[in-house]
User: Fold this.
Amino acid sequence: NIEDSPSILKLIDLKRYSSWNKTLRHTALIFHVIRIWRNKKTSTHLTTADITEARYALIKGTQQSHYAEEIKQITFKAKDKTPTVIHVDKNGILQCHGRIETLKFT
Assistant:
């Protein structure tokens, strides 16, 4: 699956784009064209799902390239059911939750 690959950053040069929105739309367009070539998609228009998928791929690829060791450690702790403030979500993206979210109101 192309969007799961941390090598997405090798495919897309982030320095070429002047804004996050341009980077996001071009990444979504690349994924869209690849799916058309593979005959997995027939629509010719970008959808919000395409853009969301591109956002996840860019964030995940960037996190993997900078925090690979930390992600391994957090994933290992998650198997132990050790509560941590930082976790990997269902999309494979690191997330941090603050103290407010862990408070229990009575």
